[in-house]
Amino acid sequence: xxxxxxxxxxxxxxxxxxxxxxxxxxxxxxxxxxxxxxxxxxxxxxxxxxxxxxxxxxxxxxxxxxxxxxxxxxxxxxxxxxxxxxxxxxxxxxxxxxxxxxxxxxxxxxxxxxxxxxxxxxxxxxxxxxxxxxxxxxxxxxxxxxxxxxxxxxxxxx
Length: 158
What we know:
Layout: E1 5-6, E2 13-16, E3 20-22, E4 25-27, E5 46-50, E6 55-60, E7 66-70, E8 75-82, E9 92-99, E10 104-108, E11 112-118, E12 124-128, E13 146-147
Parallel strand pairs: 1-9
Antiparallel strand pairs: 2-10, 3-4, 5-12, 6-11, 6-13, 7-10, 7-12, 8-9, 8-11
């Protein structure tokens, strides 16, 4: 994976979030069903907190699509690689900052290797709305995840 070229990856959708601020703070719509493809329906939600300098991933899914929401606090460096055979953008890598400095959602289809690192000096939050249940109905199925953390020690050395 070290020979990846930079470029936009087919099927990855980055959508800026509109923050509506007032004296109490801010509010943002993280997704709307009328703005998502009919084939994509979130099945669950989870939130994660990542400490400064820590990373999550990289990994990919065989069937699951992720819809990550990065709104702050904190900022992540997000890296994605197109690992899909037959994809017109196979071998491309995307990199972007997401969170307090660039509030957005990122929809990541199956076969896209993805990971992120908190590059800020505060804890950072990420919410995910995947279209598959973790470990299936009743948490009784194999986890749809191919882990890449051990593939190349320099892969996510940012």
